[in-house]
Design a protein that fits this description.
This protein is an all-alpha fold. The chain contains nine helices and no strands. It is 76% helix and 0% strand.
């Protein structure tokens, strides 16, 4: 037993290792065990959502990210992750709403500005450039590419 860590944390750590190895099905099983042992373990839901996303289960990922938000309503990473799934699903306005919330709870979150800019660009909104500018100011490298490509 890992000293100072409960079983649910060990399952989550093991799940992380399996995700890094690309073993998503087994990682999901470890995260399942972690949330079974501790149903309000927001990070385990987030991480299980990542594993589901990587395995192509976007609906399952969306559900897990939503559950993490229900447990911790100010969890910026969960809003970003849910927004990224909504981008994949081409639900751009819902993605923008999630990125807005991530920014509300973590105003220096460069990825949130960058991703919100992507969603706005898909909707034809001209203020995408201001989001990419903010992301670039926060040293998010990919934002510079978007600025060069779309913002003259």
């Amino acid at each position: 037993m890992l000293r100072g860590h409960s079983a649910n944390h060990r399952d989550a750590y093991r799940g992380h290792a399996k995700v890094k190895l690309g073993n998503f099905a087994d990682a999901i099983q470890d995260f399942n065990k972690a949330v079974e042992l501790r149903p309000k373990f927001d990070v385990a839901y987030l991480d299980r959502g990542y594993a589901k996303n990587f395995s192509g289960d976007y609906q399952g990922a969306l559900s897990d990210f939503t559950k993490a938000i229900e447990i911790s309503p100010t969890y910026a990473n969960a809003y970003i992750s849910r927004g990224e799934i909504r981008l994949k699903q081409k639900n751009y306005q819902a993605a923008i709403n999630d990125f807005d919330l991530a920014i509300r709870y973590r105003p220096d979150y460069a990825l949130a500005y960058y991703s919100r800019g992507i969603a706005k660009n898909w909707l034809g909104q001209k203020d995408a450039c201001s989001d990419w500018t903010k992301a670039a100011r926060l040293d998010y490298t990919e934002a510079f590419d978007q600025l060069k490509k779309y913002c003259k």
